[in-house]
Amino acid sequence: MKQLTSNEVRQMFLDFFEDKGHKVEPSASLVPFEDPSLLWINSGVATLKKYFDGSVTPDNPRIVNAQKSIRTNDIENVGRTARHHTLFEMLGNFSIGEYFKEEAIVWAWEFLTSEKWLALDPKKLYVTVYPEDKEAAQLWRDKVGLTDDHIIEIEDNFWDIGVGPSGPDSEIFYDRGEKFNNLSKDDPENYPGGENERWLEIWNLVFSEFNHKEDGTYEPLPNKNIDTGMGLERVVSILQDAPTNFETDLFMPIIREIEKLSQNKHYGESKQDDISFKVIADHLRAVSFAIGDGALPSNEGRGYVLRRLLRRSVMHGKKLGIDEAFMFKLVLIVGNIMDAFYPEILEQKSFIEKVIKNEEERFHETINDGLIILNQLISELKLAGETKITGKDIFKLYDTFGFPVELTEEYAQDEGLSVDHEGFIKEMEAQRNRARSARSDGKSMGIQTKLFSDTTVESIFVGYDQIVIEAKLELIATDEELVERTKSGDKVRMIFDQTPFYAEMGGQVADKGLLLDSDGYTIGKVIDVKRAPAGQTLHIVEVLSPIQVGQTMKLSVDKNLRNKITRNHTATHLLHRALKDILGEHANQAGSLVMSDYLRFDFTHFGQVTQVELDEMERKVNKKIWESLEVKTIETTIDKAREMGAMALFGEKYGNEVRVVDVGGYSIELCGGVHVANTDEIGLFKILSESGIGAGVRRIEAITSEAAFNYLQKQEKRLKIIAGLVKAKQIKDVERKIEQLQLELKETQKEKDSLQAKLANEQANDVFDTVQTINGMTIVTAQVEVSDANQMRQLADQWKQQAISNILVLGFSKDGKVSLLAAVDQETVKKGLSAGNLIKEIAPLVGGGGGGRPDMAQAGGKNAAGLTNALEKVVEWVEKNS
């Protein structure tokens, strides 16, 4: 057996099968752009499904790859077992209808045992086969030379995930020796293929020879396929004689760096700490690669997975004594480990670090409070002899502090407590019901029918360079049926043999316009334009005069409306490029809406956009407008478009023939919409707003041309009004006048604060004169005359500085509202009395609630009549708790 690095093993595998005539496919993105059935690419074959189902024919039927993959179905096991990972690499060789079992088996054995390759001891290799697959078992005997005691029949050795290709498989196991045996000799799982630590599965050879039909039956595949998968991490652990996958060169450099960041924690000294080291190392690899492939943390889908992995890592970091953002500091280590085959980590290092750091810091803002509450809750439960955290408490941590439920459950498990998960689900459902009842009912946009599904009518769009044409009416449809004629007042849908009307698509709204007869009279209004199921342009028309199928008429697009739309559309292209120039290449379009009166552009970005950045974007877009750049459109192949550097929209599917919009060489995008001929037609571009619409997605709203001019005029009018209010002679003097007024206001506030402080001092002499003593505790309670809660806190500060008593409770009412403040000195807190508990006891008497720290707490209420009772209740509370 050779001593090899992970990079050497990966490259050796690819070289071996390339020598066997396989084409090396690069590792695909973890984000499955063309497969909505998958959240992540989760295996080596996941990106090759189009070949296996026959929808695409590969250039070479022999394929080999090393594919990064993510699986998240059992995140909780990561760190607790030897080989569970979220991100892993699958080495695979594939045959699409060419070689089959014999070659797959012989080559697998050659790669594993040949001195030229891995040189594993053949005596330590065992295989499992499907009992009915006699052919595979015989090949292992005849072509490889395995004896029967190294061939185990297992009923589960049949690869089948439902409808589609399926077949028997043969797994290869490596005997790690008796020292790894974690089971007794008579344990039913103590064999190659059982659930044990001795025999480690390293390679699975799947022989796809059947088609699993929808009726549950199986039929032979026309073309038999080979699909194999070898876990790189597992093979490396054998070659590097590592007890688990984590003690290899794929993980140990990360773990050593985590040790440096921890508070004197070292891998291998504590089982519990080792779990934390492993979790962080594993999750760091997953989030680094996923972010590099375009995924961003969010509250749903794959973004939620990233957020969960990052938050889980932060929590395990805390267990190692790391109380600050640290994950982002480790991205460089991941990049260095993987650079030989995955240079993208180092290429995007700065961006990945920013995303991770931003997410860590956001979580740290809320997690500390949640962790204090959780630890306090666990302590209270243990003191009370309770063994379960209620669903209500889990939900409070989740809802108030953003504390993930799975982390609460994990902490509870570490402390030997169970959780009321069903109770949590009920609380979540109750919240959803409250949210639903608060929303108004929405209406769907429309109802799909089969009305147009069988029509063979063709419709050609000629609206890129024409907005008025003559066309023949081919089809009329009401909501229920196809008709030959319409009458005045009808609202129908029409298809013409050709049209200048642009149908709503790609974020651009539809054209509007008129239908005119041969004499130039208006016979219909086109109020909307959609796409029919077969792709024809479908005109929604309000009929003004009778119209019939076969009639030729003039189709006229509203020129003014079209011009406004095209200006806004081209402006979105300029904005997209400007975003990338200023924020970075990660700022990809995530949606858009191009209307006549404004444009909306959504984009991916991990943090807030500063005003300076917005100003720079706006300046850059306007600069390109005023440079009078020519806008050219080119119809070409998708490959040539990519060679041109054309930007494709995230997740968008394109055919082989595409349309490229080139704005003066500055912005080059794939786009089917309509645009201006020259940027100077846009005139002016103005950003109205920028905001976050979801984690990792932000939105810019903007206007152009006439709308931008009108907006600036309104702003100028407002400035003139403000100038009059602040008594500035000219607009340019407004800023100076406001600064002057702010200084005057600041001086006035100082005088007010000084007077309030004097009043507080005078009142303090009266308030602090009366001190009661209960069970050795000194107490001051008083209803005070103050202007606000801030003045009440000033009194509390004086109480603390002068050490007036052990406990202070103050209250005041104003306009029917009550404010309460409780303070407890540190000596009394150590005795177990908490200001937070005290305020919770008395707040209900004033019809309110509140909370706070053990030494200081506040509450509010609406029952002013209860203030006296609340203050009297303090003595009773102290007697009971001291």
Automatic annotation (TrEMBL):
All copies of the Alanyl-transfer RNA synthetases family profile domain together span 4-714
Q: What is its EC number?
A: 6.1.1.7
| Pfam families in alphabetical order | DHHA1, tRNA-synt_2c, tRNA_SAD
The name under which this protein is listed is Alanine--tRNA ligase
Catalyses:
tRNA(Ala) + L-alanine + ATP = L-alanyl-tRNA(Ala) + AMP + diphosphate
GO cellular component terms, semicolon-separated: cytosol
- Enzyme class, top EC level, equals ligase
